[in-house]
Amino acid sequence: MGRSFANLHIRSKNLEQTIEVLRELSKAHLKALGKNEAQVTKVVMYVCKSNEDWISVLHDYFVWGTVKKIGITLSRLIEGPVMTAGYINEEIFELSIFEGGEIQAERIFCEQWARDEYELKEERLNDDYLREALDIRNEDLDALIKINSPAQVVDKLSELVNLSLWSDSEWIPYGEALRNRFGKYEF
Question: What is the C-alpha to C-alpha distance for residues 68 and 90, in angstroms, rounded to an integer?
């Protein structure tokens, strides 16, 4: 078993507005977070303004397979793209972008054997939207798409978009840099 992570990123310049939307998500959409009212006293999320354009969010329910459901729900509540990233066992990196409650673009980066074994297929290939939402050049996206190594894609995409995709809520207790970067919010 290799390293895994999942996280969510919101294209927004307004941290306070984003926190309010996350509060709404935590109160009115518990099912999307894998909980019901009887199970919850508070929802804890870790949030940071990663750069001028992106706000990053970590939560313990974000794993490969669930983070996309949360991205869909959150994209109904906020204007602009919501990007989810799921990395599983160092074998697969799945990048999805949602807007208005719909998946707009998706790319799965892995070796062919993993694609076959897991029966992976992108829900919506739309590289023009992906490039526009990430604000990267055509040639950079073309080069990124040619990479099969999930770890190399994560590194390159982190560089291109200027945010760290190598983050997960489970890593917060063990990583001082993550603790310093992400603020803890209880809703």
Answer: 18
